[in-house]
Amino acid sequence: MSASTFQQVFGAASEAVAQAPGRVNLLGEHTDYNDGFVLPVAIGQQTRVAMRRNADTQFALHAVELGETVQFTLDRPPAEHFASYVFGCLKLVHDTGVAIPPLDIHVASEVPIGVGLSSSAALEVATLRCLRSLLSLPLDDVEIARLAQRAEIEFAGVRCGIMDQMASSLAGTDRALLLDTRSLERRTVPLPEGSAVLVLDSGVPRSLAASGYNERRAQCEEAAQLLGVASLRDVPGLESLQRLPDLLMRRARHVLSENARVLQAVQSCSAQEFGALMNASHASLRDDYEVSTPELDLLVSLLQETPGVFGARLTGAGFGGACVALCAADAVDRVAATVLAQYSRSGQQGRQLVPSASNPGSSGPGRPPGSASAGRAR
Ligand code: GLA
Q: What does pTM read for this prediction?
């Protein structure tokens, strides 16, 4: 977002600006709310937030992509869904005892919405970074991720884990972030040599809250309870799952096998081995966790069958949205063109999301972690 755009909307320059990226998860799906392991990487597309204290009694929030300005106070939440993420962040910081003056807030996002690339986490993290900059708040990047997750759970109604917010707050685009979602211990790992990430949208929209996301989480909690453990992370092995009813057994089997795949993938895997783990992850998400769709299955199969692809799977929560593939670095463009053409012959309309034309660096060497930082712009 340029300062002039803020200027156009609010008639003055912003006092603080910040940005945060979306993410694509390479492996470790539906494991984070089970205290498990995840392996996301940031994408090149960012969400930018700019703020300025206003002389009003209300907050004014303008979203460029929606062409809309909404007003609210910290006692009167906005009705618009997109604004609830920003409101939630402001409210949570306010509830820690920080006085937040009425603000003009400008949001511009390159992160595709509703496809599984964490546009909401990017919005939350960018909002909190901008607030940190504006008010000189002593928040570190992990605290920002925790507040952002709470904003999503308490104000947007999705009982999400912490992967997306940690990835947006801490991951870079050139190395994946191996995160233990229980301890928040983490380290970055390189992508397998000679490989690059390709993300294609299936064109089938999804809605997290309306989908079975919260239902899956509840099923995992029920399974853990029946097994007498705090979370599925604590189940010692697949044999323990035999005591569960079939549906819960399959849900839990996905979580256990997915955790194992993440841990195997970071043991200096070749691109072929990493790709095979991604293929197995998709099968598990489709058959055991049942969060795929016919369109996602088709797109994943087309990717898996195309030369130059090491492996492919749905990414994010599922129920529609995007697929991620690990490709030979020099084959990405060809794979995308071939697969999208085949996909359109089946009557579906897909599109390439990563690498994006405006952010070609997002599948290769890119920005180091933490460089998407908040700063003042005047
Ligand atoms: C969404 C949630 C995450 C995670 C994924 C599935 O992106 O926000 O916390 O659970 O789904 O892996």
A: 0.93
